[in-house]
Amino acid sequence: MILLKNIYKSYGEENVLKGLNLEIRENKITCIIGKSGIGKTTLLSILANIEQIDSGEIINNNHKISFVFQRDTLLPNTKVIDNFKYILGEIYDKEKLGTLIDKYLEKFEMAEKKYEYKENLSGGMVQRIKIIQALLYPSDILILDEPFKELDEEMKEILVTELKKINKTIIISSHDLDLVKNIADDIVELK
Predict the structure, then answer these.
(1) 3-state class of 77 per DSSP?
(2) Within the chain, where are the H helices?
(3) Angstrom distance (rounded) from CA 7 to CA 180
(4) How far apart, in whole angstroms, are the C-alpha atoms of residue 159 and residue 11?
(5) Which of 92, 112, 126, 177 would you label with 132, given CA atoms 20 to 30 Å apart?
């Protein structure tokens, strides 16, 4: 469990989080919802120790985290396979990594793109590669910032199915309320 008590975060004069209290349950899927600009990405960045809070207390937030950012985080001018090797090459031996990559590329209907350069991929394909990287990275917590944004309905269902199989703490921000209701154990609305 991660507990946030009276969290404040601002950027200059703009107060983004004001007195936020939140409990993230272990091995559950927590979905963060709210209008654009309300602080969802900021909250996820705080949980991932990327952003620091101005004040408040975070209890039990020293976990190994895997994060799917909204922005494109794949290496430029690099093949899909090499993007996987860069992130995961020192974690798995070569044979195991190759097997995992093939399995997940197949699941997410990307097997034929294994040797494609990132620049030749659509936004949805880039999103799938980022998601696969995060799924394969050994972590206690998986954080996904708007993971459904670039995905078609079929890929959304594949991702939902995969996330429901995972036995770890998952934190998702999303605008897709139907998917959130389908996947979440807990829903937190930022206002």
Answers:
(1) coil
(2) 40-47, 80-88, 94-107, 123-136, 153-165, 177-183
(3) 24
(4) 33
(5) 177
Cα–Cα distance list, 153 to 48, 87, 134 (Å): 28, 28, 20
Whether pTM > 0.90 for this model: the answer is yes
Q: What is the pLDDT along the chain (191 residues), one digit of tens a residue?
A: 999 999 999 999 999 999 999 999 999 999 999 999 999 999 999 999 999 999 999 998 789 999 999 999 999 999 999 999 999 999 999 999 999 999 999 999 999 999 999 999 999 999 999 999 999 999 999 999 999 999 999 999 999 999 999 999 999 999 888 899 999 999 999 99
- Residue 58: both structure tokens together: 């975070």
The count of residues in the chain is 191
Tokens of 161: 């199915």
Question: Using CA atoms, how far apart are residues 16 and 127, in angstroms rounded to an integer?
Answer: 27
Q: Provide the phi-psi class of 56: left if phi over 0, else alpha when psi is between -120 and 50, else beta.
A: left
